[in-house]
Design goal:
Elements lengths: L5 E2 L5 H5 L6 E2 L1 H13 L27 H19 L3 E17 L4 E16 L5 E15 L1
Antiparallel strand pairs: 1-2, 3-4, 4-5
């Protein structure tokens, strides 16, 4: 199998219009790019497919009563999203970790507490049966304190 069959994100149609080669990437890189896009998109954001997105954003700005319940529910929901939206992977196992961090704004001397989510995905690449691992983390739900 050829190593670079997939277009690298961000997609630049101007290159193709000018007859130039768009940067390519491997299947693993393409899957990772798609997962990052999927994880950082909320449902309804993509007008062509309103089911494209991540259940993580359902809890944005919400009080989470039980972190363990939320973590397990979100991990299972993400596994279902992966089965539906990233068919190049099989048997995905998702781990979700949630923490809070206090960040200081140097300009205003105010503090902000933000939730930080870490998503770890282990799966098999369907075409090659190779192990695939993906890890991302990002902040959501800002709460400001002066």
């Amino acid at each position: 199998m050829t190593k670079s069959l997939y277009l690298r994100l961000p997609f630049n149609p101007e290159l193709l219009i000018k007859g130039k080669q768009h940067p390519l990437c491997s299947q693993s890189e393409s899957i990772a790019q798609n997962l990052q896009l999927l994880m950082t998109t909320y449902y309804g954001e993509c007008k062509f497919d309103e089911s494209f997105g991540s259940p993580v954003w359902d809890a944005d700005f919400e009080n989470i009563a039980s972190i363990n319940v939320w973590r397990n529910k979100t991990a299972k929901a993400l596994e279902e999203v992966l089965k539906a939206k990233e068919k190049r992977l099989s048997a995905p196992i998702v781990t979700v970790n949630l923490s809070q961090e206090e960040l200081r704004n140097e300009l205003t001397s105010s503090f902000m507490i933000k939730r930080k989510i870490e998503i770890i995905i282990s799966a098999k690449i369907e075409a090659t049966n190779d192990l695939f691992e993906f890890n991302t983390e990002f902040y959501f739900s800002p709460i400001s304190f002066d």
